[in-house]
Fold:
Amino acid sequence: MTFYKAIAAVLMTAALAGCAQTEGQQRAGTGALIGGAGGALVGQAIGGNTKSTVIGAASGALLGAVVGSATTPQRRGEQMCRYQDRYGRIYTAPCDDRYYNGDY
Structure:
């Protein structure tokens, strides 16, 4: 019965990962799927029981989602920078070419 629950959880996660809207969400979902599968295999190889497999799958999915989200490249113009005007007011706006050229 536990095996069927695990299969259902994987299929549900795959279905929800397909609903992601942004590239970062898609990469996080894909990373979670790959990390969960890899973590389950490692957990089973190390512990040899269901508890180890579930712990490995959960930690692998979490790590995969974090890595997938963190490695999403930022497109030019999406980075936000903080600026200060001549009156001392600080505001946030899209970064200009100085940021991308390293002249800041």
Remarks:
- Residues 39 and 59 are 7 Å apart (CA to CA).
- The chain has four helices and two strands.
